[in-house]
Structure formats: structure tokens, C-alpha cells
Amino acid sequence: MKHKLVFFSFILFFLLYHCATIEKGMLDRDWSIRKNTQIKNCSFSSNTITMWRGNNTHSFYGTGSIPEKPKKLWKFRTAQYYERSKDRTWEGTGWSGQMSLFDGYLYAGAVDSYLYCFNCHTGKLMWKYKVKNSIKSSVCLYQDKIIFGTRDNHIYCLNRTNQKLIWKKKTNGDVDSSACVYQNKLYIGTEDGRILCLDPETGKIIWKKHTEGSVESSPTVLSNIVLISSFKGFLYCFDKDNGKLNWKFNTGDDTDSSTVIYKGKIYLGCENGKVYCLTLKGKKVWEFKALKGVWGTPALKDDRLFVGSDDKYFYCLNTANGDVIWKFKAKDGIWGSANVVGEKVIFGCMDGYLYCLDINGKLKWKFNTKGAIFSSPIIVDSVIYIGSRNGYIWAIGEDPYKKDSVN
């Protein structure tokens, strides 16, 4: 009997040690929790994603590389939100919700009215914060703060450490726009037809300006200007310090796509199917027209622009003249924004697949989330995080042990 106890004790010790070694190995092998940093007085970073489209010009898409043979690392099922006024059930992540990640924690707003925080490596739920309606705005991380808009007509600012409310700002409409903090000022749009410049510490209004129609796009900030587009088909350029209107450009239709500033030019899409290239003074350089609307924000690399359309095509355009270099046909509309890292580009589609193409338009792989994808992915340390409308939040990457694994 004594020998059996010793034997089973040894086996138990071996299993516990082995499990601990596996867990440590998963962290050590490209899974280590690294300390992230942010640019001083701004809500963006050079080594992680902490705001919509990565930085103030919407031109930073991720770190590491896009996996060659992806598999599910973990997934989490969000709740459902029933909206009586429209007899509609919401779940998962919506347009344009993109997640943010800092110091090993993934932050995701969901249409079930919760803001979630996960351990990014394991998917363990660390905490969740309830608001009164859906969250479609992307999370903005700034210093110790979490800033996001909601469909309960508020902008929230929470303490990232203890989740206590620091401040909230009442608006007269939904807030699908995502915040950008640049040089200690917070910029965000609202569906009551305004762009707000706030003090990120207190939520106090520094300046506000009305737009023609509601604002669902997110502000782009550079030097002394801030850009934002509206429902009535205008792109506005304001002075970032005092809100003075510098110029506005008529896009011709509802413009929910956010602008990108890249190599001294402005790029944006529009619901009439057009993609525009403008100068920083608001003068049109070229336009391209897809067969249906463009809701996603373009991604750019070198001399190429990548964007999807509701016409089911994903386009690669020449940034010099807007000519089509290639196009790829999916099985449904593409509303989310693409990300390009290295020589690959990824995007979600309403057919439920996350697609990965090489820089020349060849399909490398597709991952089935089994739910329409309206959101935009992020890539941090070679792991892709994306939400789908069947209620799931996904982490997708390489198997740290079975390198020949195929989804």
C-alpha cells in the first residue's frame, strides 16, 4: 500500500510539473507578456494596437507577422442584447469595432452592451463592464484610461486598473466613432452631428463643431489638422486646437469610412462606392468607383491601397492614380477594414470567413468563424484578434507546438 501511495504521488507530481511546464512553454514560445509603451501624450503605440487603426493617421496595422497556418487559439462567447424598440437581437462585435491590447490584456467592446477584458494568451475573462446599450466604438487606451463610445449616447472613460468610472460625457446620439488622443486632446465624433475635442483627464469640452449629418467615422489627426466625415457626404478638415474649419470636401454620399493620411495624401471610401485620394488641402487627386458601397477604412503599403466593398470584391489600387492592380472576389459583402502586415493582407467578410491574401492577391488561407464579420481585425505579436456576429471573439495564430497544423 505504501509503495502504491509513493507511486501515485510521483505520477501526480509528474503531471502537475508537466502541465506547469506546458503553460510556461506557451508563454515562453512567442507568447510572452511583454510590457507595452505608448507615445507620450497620445493614445497609440509602436509595439501594440491601442486605438482604432493603430495610430493618429490610421496607418499602423499590427506587429509580428500574419500566421502561415492559422488555428483557433481560443474563443469566447459573448452574451445577447435584445433591443425592444427594434425587435432585434444583437451579439458579437459590430461595425466598426476593433479591439485594443496592452500589457497582455485584450479589450473588446461588444454589441451585447459589455466591455470585456481578457488575458490575450488564454482568453480568460478578467472582468466586464456593463453599459446601457451596444458598444460599436473601438476601445481607445490612453495612459491608465479606457475610452469608448456607446449606443446609450455616452462617451465613457474608465480606470484601466480598477475599472472605476473616471468620467462620462452625455451626447444626443449614438457614439460609434472611436476616440483618438493626440497631444493631450481627445477627438471623437457623435451621431448628433458633432465632432468633439475633449480634455481626456476630465471629459471637459475644449471645443465642438457641428457637421452636416451624423458622424460614425473616427477622427484622423496630424500636425495642426483633424479630419472627420459625415452622413450628408462631407469630409471636414478642422484646426485641431480651436476647431476652425479649414475646408470641406463633398464625397457625394454617406461617408462612414475613416480617413487615412499616408505619404502626404488623404484616402477614404464612401457609400456610393467611391474611393478618393485628396491632397492635404482637400483637392481631389483621383477617384475610383466600386460596384457598391465602401464602408471600410483603406489600408496602405508602399504604392498600394487595399479596401473591400459591399460588391463582394476586395480591391488593390495603385496609390498614384487609383487604377486597379488586382481584385479578389469573396462570397459576400466586405464591410470591415483590412490590415496589411509584411507581405500579407487580411480582412473579414460577411460570409463568415477571415481571408488572408498575399500582396499580389493570391489566397493564402481563409478561416471560418461561422458568423458574419463586420469588425476589423488586429494583429499583435503574430496573433489575430477578431469578433464575429455569431457572438464570438476569436484569437487566431500558429500552434506553438504543431507547426504543421492547418485550420
Could you characterize what this model shows?
The model is unreliable at 4-8, 10-32 and 401-407 (pLDDT under 50). The protein has one helix at 2-28; strands spanning 71-77, 80-83, 88-91, 100-102, 105-109, 114-119, 125-130, 140-142, 145-149, 154-159, 165-170, 180-182, 185-190, 194-198, 205-210, 220-222, 225-229, 234-239, 245-250, 260-262, 265-269, 274-279, 284-289, 299-301, 304-308, 313-318, 324-329, 339-341, 344-348, 353-358, 363-368, 378-380, 383-387, 392-397. Helices cover 7% and strands 42% of the residues. The chain has a domain at 1-30. The strands form nine sheets. The protein has a four-stranded antiparallel β-sheet, with no helix packed on it. Strands 4-5-6-7 form a four-stranded antiparallel β-sheet, with no helix packed on it. The chain has a four-stranded antiparallel β-sheet with strand order 8-9-10-11, with no helix packed on it. A hairpin with a 5-residue loop joins strand 26 (313-318) and strand 27 (324-329). The protein has 407 residues and is mainly β.
